[in-house]
Structures are given as structure tokens and as C-alpha cells.
Amino acid sequence: MITWRRVEERDFPLLGRWLAQPHVARWWNHETSPEAVERDFGPAARGEEPSEDLLVLLDGRPLGLVQRCRLADYPRYAAELSGVVEVPGGAMSIDYLIGEPELTGRGLGPAMIRAVVAATWADHPGATAVVVPVVAANRASWRALEKAGLRRVGEGELEPDNPVDDPAHYVYRIDRPLTP
């Protein structure tokens, strides 16, 4: 069973360990020192930033991280994304990782994404869509989005998180389901 809770400061050592894992470090490109993890995740954990950092659990065991935000709360990011695809008012975005290497390649990424997207409609009644850019070279990531039900709606150049990556990105989207 996949559940989650907000990241707390007590989770920072775990996040630092995950960010140092080669399969995560390749795409996330974060510093992993305790100071850097506190700097990058502390504001959201303390409620000082509008994004949500969610520690995802599989049967109570830490599995990964999902960052969720309203794109309107990050206007520069939304503007950059709008240069590639239409970004509807009320759109949200997610970023995600599976931290434990032995849990990768088992279909848990799509399950995690599907669960958080489904919860987004309840947690954020004003959310109209979830729009997710992903580096085109990160096949595992965009395949997880596809398996979770998101569809590719565009491709273009965006600033990559990791400077070694090409700016080519695919953009995926899922809209809020219509209620009968």
C-alpha cells in the first residue's frame, strides 16, 4: 500500500542518502550535505514555501519523494513551461524519485505517481491539470508517467536540472477527471 506524509526535518538524513544514490544523483543533481539538504527541503518542511515535499511510503517503509506544487506559485517556472505547452490556470506539477535502489524497476514509480495524482484532485480542489516536464533522455521517468496515465502533450527546450543534460524535454499532462 502506498501512502505518504509531509517531509519533516527528521527525514533529511534519509533524503541526503537518497540524493547521493547514483540512480537519483544522475537526474536530481542536488548537493547532499546536511546543510544543503536543510537549505533545499527545510522551507517546505517548515511551511515557509508553498510547495509540498511528500515522503512516500510502501507498506510503511520509505520508498521515495514526490514534490508537488501549484505552477502559479512559481511564475518563472510556469512562464518557461508555457513557452513549450499550454499551461492551464490551476495547473500543478510534480517531481518524484524512488530512493531505494532495490525498489527501482518494479513498477512502483507509476503506482506512486498514479496515487499522488489521484490525491491531488481531492487535496487541491482548484487543480485543473498536472503538467510534468521531464528530460527527454530520462526514459525511465517519462515511461513511468505514461504508465501512470499521463500523456505527452509537447516537447521543447527547457533549462535542465543537471547541466550535463541536453535541454530537450518532453512534457506530460493529465487533466482533472470530469465528474458525472
From TrEMBL:
Function: Acyltransferase required for the direct transfer of medium- to long-chain fatty acyl moieties from a carrier protein (MbtL) on to the epsilon-amino group of lysine residue in the mycobactin core.
GO biological process per UniProt: response to antibiotic; siderophore biosynthetic process
MF terms (GO), sorted A to Z: N-acyltransferase activity
Pfam families: Acetyltransf_8
Name of this protein: Lysine N-acyltransferase MbtK
Domain N-acetyltransferase: 2-177
Keyword Transferase in record: yes
Gene3D superfamilies documented for this protein: 3.40.630.30
Superkingdom of this protein's organism: Bacteria
Lineage: Bacteria, Bacillati, Actinomycetota, Actinomycetes, Streptosporangiales
